[in-house]
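ok so for the tutorial part 2 we go from a plain amino acid sequence to predicted structure tokens. step 1 is just haveing the sequence, like this:
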Amino acid sequence: MVKKILLLLFIAAGFIAPVRAQSAFPQIAPLDAGFSPERLFRLQQTLDDYAKEQRNAGSVTLILRDGQQVFFHAAGSQDLEVQTPMQYDTMFRIASQTKAIISVAVMILQEEGRLLIQDPVGKYLPEFMETTVAVPDSSERGYTVVPANRPITIRDLLMHTAGIGYGYGVAADAWRQAGIQGWYLADRAVPVRELVRSMARLPMDAQPAERFVYGYANDILGALIEEVSGRPLDEYLQEALFGPLAMRDTHFFVPEEKVDRLATVYSASQQGLVRAPDPGLGAGQGHYVQGPRVTFGGGAGLVSTAQDYARFLQMMLNGGILDDVRILSPATVELMTVNHLDGIPFRPGLGIGLGFDIVTDLGVRGVPGAVGDYGWGGAYHSTYWVSPQDGLVVVFFTQLIPSTGSDIHAKLRTLLYQSLEF
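step 2 — the prediction. this is what the tokens look like for a chain of 422 residues:
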């Protein structure tokens, strides 16, 4: 009985242990935030069990409600081989979670009057004013190249309806010959502006606004940000977002003094967890520490911490402001977090905003949450979502690629909502 009481007191205190990082958020006891402490402990146990059973090496999970920290848990190991415990300020490769940050940066430029998202991309990157599309046919090559039916707009890129994939579409041979395939760019030694210039000469996968195509859209937006702002992408993001939001550990490449905080990448295999190759390109450790440090990938290039990313998301939940620093107007946040797809199919119960997916029908989607929730994830099996209805920010970081068979995202969502009482 005494042991159980002590356990519940620990839970009620907010699951905080004295490890390396201090909280960036005011803390609140789960009970006061509407969570059952005993039920929330099921989530902590599950995260620990997944690490103990080596279903992942470890993870960091941060849950905020109304801007206050309810749950912050570091499970397992940052590195299994040297048995480094996971820490609250461990840094993770966040891959496609970079996209939301790039989308916000574009909207900042719109609010400053420097662009309109309805503008053709070619207004700022001239090579995109006239693009082409590969149309499948019965020819020996398998497709015919035709002109795009209209210029691609910035909004097309934000919605992933520009028809631009990752180089594996109908004209995969042309993209392969150009040496441009796959989301991973950290190994390249050319500025993103030059890489994007080469992309514009290649046939796209679909006509603008024809369908959802996931690919290099945000890398192109990164080049557009450089062109419009007149600054390298890393410098612009530091000035416009990371500095104002006190995101001190978000970078395209890991600074030398922070290398010991970068989590190791593992892969799921039939033999259990296997350390991913080094560097191993996108399915390995990558060139985030040692590499050219030249190509700032706006689609999948950043590393960050759970606290940094939660600060970014809390700014969005607050309507564009955090700690009295306004990044966006409430109207812009609202525009970004509603469904923009008009007759274009996506996933059941989900739409697409400007940088996020959006829950449009809870029953059709079939998992706990609320209409209006928005989020996304990353290739290394990280995920996040924001719930305006419930006042929640949820960040889950791990480093698992491929993550074959993992159900931790569904467990996270289910175990969070089963503990939420009001």
